[in-house]
Amino acid sequence: MATHSIPVTKNLHPKLASFDMNQIAFGKNFTDHMLVADYENGEWKNVEIKPYAPFEVDPSSAVLHYGQTIFEGIKAFKNEKGEVVIFRPDQNFIRFNTSAARMQMPQVPEWLFMEGMKQLIDLERAWIPSKPDASLYIRPFMIATDPFLGVRPSNSYKFMIILGPSGPYHAAPMKILIEQQYTRATPGGVGFAKNGGNYGASLYPVTLAQAKGYDQVLWTDAIEHKYVEEVGMMNVMFVIDGKIITPSLERGTVLKGVTRDSSITILREMGYEVEERNLLVSEIIEAHKKGLFQEVFGVGTAAVVSYISRLAHEEYVMDFDVDALKVAPALKNHLNDLRMGNIVDKHNWLVKL
Ligand code: COI
Fold it and tell me: In this predicted model, what pLDDT tens digit does every residue of 32-45 receive, in sequence order?
């Protein structure tokens, strides 16, 4: 990868000194700088790091009307030695360009994504929390900027990276309702891509579930609502009779999660049998009736490992004692230990700054 020197304009009014590192929420605070690049006439240009600030888009910009937008979520950590590591950004880079291809957007070159991210993080080192469960959340995204209301791929785009110190997405165990009517993704659709619209479309069904006392939904397949897919914005794992089962990716309706992939590897190394396959809601309920359904949890970059205390299918409610969970906490501790440098990174997942 060639080295590119990206021009930097320093923020003369940094907010870091007034930021309270003990009050870290998810996605609320952003660092002092951002990376910006423009795509015009078939090439990336105007790459720069500059003070974090609102920017102008034309009211007719394609992204505002037709949702041509994609994003990624990545995390950087400061370990006990003060070293900064980024968790598997190469995987997010690949997925970003997979999402771009599906949304008919240009590919982002590796140097722009990776070096841009590293140079930006390097500048913002002091913003990286060193507390357990906290990290620097990295949000690369791309939007279509053609000022044109015709429905066709934009010719111009903006790629940006913003950063924010973040705590866990779901601090408390979640109550989940199995979705029976609405759909997150359909075969042939954009469910495997990190397209903004996937997330916008989830808001209404989740709000309905919240009105019934749940935090999130467990998405099921679009056709029959028989197979489980994802939980909220995370991949989902079930522990049934000592075995771990997670929905497979083959139908294109489940996001190819980086934490999902890492979790499968770690769990297998811990000695668990992990199956990636179609999983019926009825199979889960049968297992529960027989006393074999032991755990269910979400895995994702923002969420890491999220415990689930209740899963309900219509009137049938399955409760889990989160203090008695074994697999989910073991996985969470392993991921945290790896990120903090307490165990050997044998797969070279950590990219040092
Ligand atoms: C992530 O885990 O980084 C995600 O993309 C979920 C996000 C929508 C908060």
Answer: 999 999 999 999 99
CATH no. for 16-166: 3.30.470.10
Segment 182-219, tens digit of pLDDT:
999 999 999 889 999 999 999 999 999 999 999 999 99
Q: Where are the alpha helices (DSSP H) in 108-202?
A: 110, 116-123, 196-200
C-alpha 150 to ligand 1 mean position (Å): 30
Residue 50, exposed/middle/buried by CB under 10 A (0-12, 13-18, 19+)? Answer: middle
| CA of residue 270 to ligand 1 center, whole Å | 26
The number of the ligand 1 atom at minimal distance from the alpha carbon of 139 is 3
Dihedral pair phi/psi, residue 228, rounded to 5°: -85, 150
Measured in angstroms, how far is the CA atom of residue 292 from the centroid of ligand 1? 31
Three-state secondary-structure class, residue 81:
coil
Q: Does domain 174-340 have CATH number 3.40.1550.10?
A: no
pTM of the shown model: 0.95
From the alpha carbon of 194, which atom of ligand 1 is closest? Answer: 5
pLDDT for 331-348, tens place per residue?
Answer: 999 999 998 889 999 999
Contact (CB, 8 A) for 225 and 289: no
Instruction: Count CB atoms within 10 A of the CB of residue 294.
Output: 20
**pLDDT tens digits for 158-176?**
999 999 999 878 779 999 9
